[in-house]
């Protein structure tokens, strides 16, 4: 994922997409609270805040002028010896309902993406889906984050 820029560039070239605003990058984000969705548009490389995959995409495209949906995973607990890569690549803990929260966030993000592609109104989408809020109560217990994905036209 950290080296995804060349693949994104090849896909944009293949489909003759020249406007980076047509690109939506969805990724995890340690600088966003767990369960929160941040939606960004443009900015400089510093605005990518160490998200290596997004930095690589920006470098490959020569611009940060694309849409970013950042799914909050938070940082390792204070006092933890866990590194950032261990944190983001490690399994979700069941005891803290991390998997339940992330499953909810994936559904929430899907709704936000659908709204954005239907309305093309990023400001409204951000207002509706990216505001800070408390962790939702009554999370559905989730045993797995494996979702079926249908890819057509490739």
Walk me through this protein's architecture.
The protein is an alpha+beta fold and 154 residues long. The chain has one domain (5-129): Rossmann fold (3-Layer(aba) Sandwich), CATH 3.40.50. Helices cover 36% and strands 11% of the residues. It has five helices and three strands. It has helices at residues 5-14, 52-61, 84-89, 98-119, 122-129, and strands spanning 24-29, 37-41, 67-72. Helix 1 crosses helix 2 and helix 4 (98-119) runs antiparallel to helix 5. It is globular, with a radius of gyration of 16 Å. The two termini are 20 Å apart. The mean pLDDT is 85. GO terms for molecular function: peptidyl-tRNA hydrolase activity; tRNA binding.
Poorly predicted runs of 5 or more residues: none
Radius of gyration: 16 Å
- Please give the largest β-sheet: 3 strands, mixed
The total beta strand count reads 3
Cα distance, first to last residue?
Answer: 20 Å
CATH-defined superfamily: Peptidyl-tRNA hydrolase
Number of domains: 1
Keywords: Hydrolase, RNA-binding, tRNA-binding
InterPro entries: Pept_tRNA_hydro, Pept_tRNA_hydro_sf
GO molecular function, one term: peptidyl-tRNA hydrolase activity
Pfam family, one: Pept_tRNA_hydro
